[in-house]
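so my prof wants the structure for this chain in the tokens format not the other one, which i didnt know existed until like an hour ago. anyway here's the sequence
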Amino acid sequence: MQNDHILIIGAGLCGSLLAVQMAKHGYKISLVEKREDLRQTDISAGRSINLAFSDRGLKGIKRVGLEEKVVKLCIPMNGRMLHDAEGNTKLSAYSGREGEYINSISRSGLNAVLLDEAESFDNVKIHFQVSCEAVDLKNAKATIRNHNEETFEIAADYVIGTDGAGSVVRQSMMKNKDLRFSFSQNFLTHGYKELSILPKNNKHQIFKNALHIWPRGENMLIALPNLDGSFTVTLFLAYEGGKYNFNNLTNPTIVEEYFKTNYPDAFELMPHLKDEFFENPTAALGTIRCHPWTTEKALIMGDAAHAIVPFYGQGMNASFEDVFEFDQILTEQNHNIGLAFEKFSKNRKIDADGIADLALDNFHEMKAHTAQELFLEKRKLELAFEKEFPEEYSSKYSLVTFNEEIGYHEAKTRGRAQDKVILYLLKEKVLSEKMTLKEKLNLVKKHVSTYLKEEVISV
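here's what i got, hopefully its the right format
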């Protein structure tokens, strides 16, 4: 049993899982959250209602013994259902191997499971509706303001910031000139707005077990299923430029025109579109990179350290993997928290940057490339490789999503090389129909090896 007192700022998904993990070791935990208790009120507005949950996130859940409870909240999604402008659909599987899929899961439902588990420990105290105003990094103290505007201090032995992209703990680190803290925040030209497809007779109106995508070049619509038969629909659209953008979709008439023109089959399923469009907020999409993640007696993790755009469905999964990796290191360091902070900050940074890069890659792939013939040909070939030679090949998507034993950086490096090689060989018609599938795989592997060594493709 450990005697240290850990103050965790932020009781979202990452903070709640971390609280459970640390509580299991016996640490005294104070978990503070500026929002109301989501189990008592609806606080989803402006945030993703559901999320893509996959193997990297699951290993964090397994580590705290909550797999059975969490799986009950999941809807398996076996692939992307592509919708063209005429309303035709095509299912593109996520993997050629049996049993590999991602899940749609309720953000609030998952967070509630974690909060319930955290509260089951006598050594955990959760404070809702209190905001962290500042952190004394050297002394592990936080100035807290409650909903009555009263301020008080919580003193601990260590502070961990899991308080999201606007992290107060990170801001306190940035003010420490001796730390030489590096920080960047880069926004996409696109934002997003959440809408919905409601159930009909308590059933899903479109295929339940897929992530639906309407790719339209520079913009796109996606939809993820919910347990109640609805779909959470997200519009990703540029703020300006082109015929339609968030800045000129200013009245119900033009909104209806835009959806009828670009997403006619989705429009027919969204009778509440015009109300939702103007009731729901438009949110920005950005990437945060910073380093170091630790100083004195404080650490940041999750979105506080590495917020990413959502196009690989890995934001939550990366945060849960943070908790898993930190706990591994903490155990290896025999619960020397200071050393664990330093090692985690140093080791995890390269993988955080890796998934940030991959998420940006996938933004361009999802909104445009998924509908291109060359990309579809590449996916068909990769699925065949995975099905026939499951131990010899994994696509970039599989490396990221289903190969949790390797880091994001390695998945990015190998996956990008494979993509470039296969697209090149297909474009140049090197992979002839006369070749067996095994011969094609061997040729791809040969050129990937060469590419990784020399960063050139030689046919």
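also thought this was worth mentioning. The first strand starts at residue 5 and ends at 9.
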